[in-house]
Specification:
Bound molecules: protoporphyrin IX containing FE, iron/sulfur cluster
Largest sheet of chain A: 4 strands, mixed
Strand content of chain A: 15-25%
CATH topology of the largest domain in chain A: Alpha-Beta Plaits
Distance between the termini of chain B: 8 Å
Number of strands of chain B: 2
Strand content of chain B: under 5%
CATH architecture of the largest domain in chain A: 2-Layer Sandwich
Order of helices and strands of chain B: HHEHHE
Shape of chain A: globular
Helix content of chain A: 25-40%
Largest sheet of chain B: 2 strands, antiparallel
Strand order of the largest sheet of chain B: 1-2
Largest interface: A-B, 51 and 49 residues
Number of helices of chain B: 4
Shape of chain B: globular
Oligomer: heterodimer
Radius of gyration of chain B: 18 Å
CATH class of the largest domain in chain A: Alpha Beta
Structural class of chain B: mainly alpha
Radius of gyration of chain A: 23 Å
Distance between the termini of chain A: 84 Å
Structural class of chain A: alpha+beta
Chain lengths: 316, 158
């Protein structure tokens, strides 16, 4: 059974309203005070037929953002620094690369006693509190109030920290492009990191992300996160299925619904092929320690005050 | 110089060392330059470890800072005869540079801690500005500390 909300209706009530809001406030949309609820996408794995239309649509829509490195690359020191060059393998679509921000992952599992194959569109999860953005030491990665995160290719130095802190190792590096070339290419930086930016530019124009629009099976839906959660739960109930992304890394703006439990899926994973394992909230320690920072000055002042009164008592 | 500040200078030295180390570890440099390959220093390349450490050191620095500030203010309220000689002194030039850069680091650092909370969206340019200001203040602090160390300039001149 299909969800009672028709897709068209759903989009009318959410995405395009959202698109208009983003367009309306222009660049200021990046600032605080935009109280709109962030957008999330639902990816219903049970509907995907693995045709890769979304992959090609992504590549077309974002081709102008892809790196155009100049060769030869400057030599980097020390020699352990890896050169990562995908510019001659732009056609690779079976994993994430700087030229392929979305790929179809094959998975097998058992449903009602039968072995089934599932195809899963994989890309950045757009975490609610994205460590790739929050821990970027230069502020090259940014999160927008609409809930998407993206890496500014004008500012990124390619140190790959975002990939190291991403629970899914999403961002992919291309050597030989970007700001580091103008600084100290031999000693710092190594190119630019690339990943799905959830078609921020299309959203600003009130359009849907290219992969969503191109899909013949309406696998993806975009809307306010609370509505997407409701829809995901509804779909999960219909198919007696499971949801990924509600709590992963503290919650993401991408929710997967699968007919097979995620921990019972067998799939190809490794470099550029993200896993589907449970993920704890990587930013939780920082958020908890923030409380210590509030208490700290009070504790220090109290200690000094205590000392002062003791002193007075002693001398009196 | 008396030994009046000896204990807190030692604590401050340790905090400064570890906060600087964990601060620089926020930039992906220790793995590239083999430093995290030195046995026992592997944690320097683990971003979540150094991030938590930077926060813990920042909390300790705030405890020490507010203690020292409160102590200085209250100390001056004691009858003159009870007061420590050093407490009556004035900050030296390097002392001022260090105090002000520390204050700046605390402010920019705490704003960045807020930025890192879930659901907080700062304007992109503000984040870049805070990052660079934090880094610049860190350099000023370390420069002043080095200069004061070499030229033997105390925090407070009596
Ligand atoms: C209350 C004190 C402090 C707090 C709360 C604080 C907080 C922070 C935070 C949250 C970051 C990560 C930036 C990000 O979110 O991307 C950071 C980075 C950094 N901190 Fe601190 N910090 C403090 C004091 C210091 C001190 C005293 C030093 C060194 C003397 C220092 C050196 C650094 C360096 C080098 C970085 C990396 C470069 C940068 O992102 O600017 N910090 N600090
Ligand atoms: S276009 Fe739709 S059906 Fe085809 S692979 Fe992508 S998500 Fe699956
Ligand atoms: S999935 Fe990874 S790259 Fe995407 S927002 Fe989360 S941390 Fe960043
Ligand atoms: S949202 Fe846009 S950038 Fe992201 S995978 Fe889809 S088409 Fe590609």
């Amino acid at each position: 059974m299909r969800s009672p909300v028709s897709r068209r209706q759903f989009l009318k009530s959410t995405v395009f309203a959202a698109g208009a809001a983003v367009v309306g406030t222009g660049p200021a949309a990046a600032g605080p005070g935009t109280e709109e609820e962030p957008l999330a996408t639902l990816i219903d794995i049970s509907r995907c037929i693995g045709c890769e239309e979304c992959v090609y649509a992504c590549n077309d829509a974002n081709a102008r953002k892809f790196p155009e490195p100049e060769k030869p690359f400057p030599t980097m020191y020390p020699s352990r620094v890896p050169v990562e060059d995908w510019s001659d393998q732009r056609d690779v679509t079976d994993r994430l690369t700087p030229y392929n921000w979305l790929y179809i992952q094959y998975a097998t599992g058992t449903k009602d006693g039968e072995e089934i194959t599932l195809t899963i569109p994989r890309r950045c999860m757009h975490c609610q509190n994205p460590p790739c953005v929050k821990l970027c030491p230069w502020g090259a990665a940014k999160q927008q109030p609409s809930g998407l995160s993206r890496i500014d290719s004008q500012l990124c130095l390619g140190g790959s920290k975002c990939k190291d802190v991403c629970p899914w190792d999403i961002p992919q590096r291309q050597t030989g492009v970007g700001l580091y070339l103008d600084i100290l290419p031999a000693f710092a930086g190594n190119g630019v990191m690339y990943k799905c930016d959830r078609c921020y530019d299309r959203l600003e124009k009130g359009e849907q992300p290219a992969c969503i629009e191109a899909c013949p099976e309406q696998v993806q839906v975009i809307g306010r996160r609370s509505e997407i959660i409701a829809l995901a739960k509804e779909r999960a109930q219909e198919m007696n299925g499971h949801i990924y992304g509600l709590d992963e890394n503290g919650g993401t703006h991408t929710l997967y619904v699968s007919p097979v439990p995620f921990d019972q899926l067998t799939y190809d994973t490794g470099k550029g092929k993200p896993h589907l394992k449970p993920v704890k909230d990587t930013m939780a320690d920082g958020s908890n320690l923030a409380l210590a920072l509030v208490i700290a000055p009070v504790a220090g002042a109290a200690a000094a005050l205590g000392k002062f009164y003791n002193r007075i008592k002693e001398e009196a | 110089m008396t030994d009046y500040f000896r204990g807190r200078r030692l604590v401050y030295g340790l905090i400064l060392f570890f906060i600087t180390l964990s601060g620089f570890a926020q930039m992906p440099v220790f793995a590239r330059y083999y430093i995290s390959d030195i046995p026992g220093l592997g944690w320097l390349a683990q971003f979540y470890v150094t991030h938590a450490m930077h926060y813990i050191m920042a909390a300790l620095l705030l405890v020490l800072g507010s203690y020292a500030a409160m102590d200085a203010v209250l100390g001056r309220k004691l009858p003159s005869a009870w007061q420590n000689r050093v407490n009556k002194g004035r900050l030296t030039a390097t002392g001022w540079v260090k105090v002000l850069s520390l204050a700046g680091l605390m402010v920019t650092g705490c704003v960045m801690v807020v930025k890192n909370l879930s659901g907080v969206y700062f304007p992109h340019l503000l984040i870049i500005f805070l990052d660079l200001l934090h880094l610049a203040l860190c350099m000023i602090l370390l420069g002043a500390t080095l200069y004061a160390g070499i030229r033997k300039r105390p925090w407070i001149a009596v």
